[in-house]
Amino acid sequence: EAKTAGKRQWRRYRPALQEGMAERHELQESLDQAPIETSFTVLYQPIVDLASGAAAGFEALVRWPHATRGVVLPEEFISLAEESGRIIPLGAWVLSEAVTETIRMQTLVQADTWATDRHSPYMSVNVSPRQFRDEGFVDRVRQVLDASQLPPSSLVLELTESVLMRHDDRVLADMRAITDLGVRIAIDDFGTGYSSLSYLRDFPISLLKIDKSFIDELGRSPQQYALVEGIVHLADTLGVKVIAEGIENQNQLELLLSMGCPLGQGFLFARPLAADRAESFVLAPNADHLGNWSRSASQ
Ligand code: C2E
Ligand code: MG
Ligand code: MG
Ligand code: MG
């Protein structure tokens, strides 16, 4: 099924359930042959300071606009790229694109004389388990930073719980090497794996992203609210900043504000945006691309 999505007439690729091995194999081949720089694109979703509405940062999200399939979403190809190892050069490219874009955004903020109260946005980049385990990963991060002059504290790397579950010394050593560079680490999709709050104690983690499934359930029961509130407060006690993922409505925003959740991301504020629109968001988070979200309602 291919359907029209958005102004750019990109069709979204959705494999039917009965599509099997052959289809996967074909997509895999196409993925492995696609020249990275010209085949993929990176979108940037704002991570919003919930109290002020400003863009605290962005998450880089890769897309694959495919000649015959339409836009292939990461859910369809990241696992394939993991299997073949293609994720290593692809992930390295996303990282360097995202760093270049961060420099551009920070330059815009510095040049904007009206933006006296605005901080330079940070950039958050997803790192898949295989990419993180690759021998050259830490060096690559170091090289990208050296080549760009980006302040290391402006870069966040998102790891999932599956990386932390393999509780070996290499994982911890590599995480320390990354934080020694000044780069921060976030746990992504918190709550979906075998979540253990001990991760927050045992690993050098600066940010925690509460999975969308918890935000979806937020208004449904006092227990759900208490669960998220508990995570927010505990994280705060441990000096870990919380980001709520997948905020889609005003009610969720208000509940999160009431429990003191500092940061959030979701379609209520903005979808993943092309670089130029992300740059506009940095300078004018209240512009009309915010849809029905109004800043006053969050104050
Ligand atoms: P993620 O890291 O948890 O990223 C958040 C996903 O939630 C994104 O999907 C984003 O578009 C979506 N999202 C954000 N707000 C909302 C909302 O309010 N409602 C809904 N329904 N969705 C929302 P996306 O871009 O399709 O990416 C899916 C996953 O693919 C990501 O989940 C991440 O695990 C992976 N991914 C994306 N880009 C990369 C990449 O460059 N490298 C690696 N290794 N993985 C990536
Ligand atoms: Mg992520
Ligand atoms: Mg996530
Ligand atoms: Mg997720």
From TrEMBL:
Record GO biological process: regulation of DNA-templated transcription
Domain EAL: 24-286
Record keywords: Membrane, Transmembrane, Transmembrane helix
Keyword Transmembrane helix: yes
Keyword Transmembrane helix tagged: yes
Taxonomic superkingdom: Bacteria
Protein name: EAL domain-containing protein
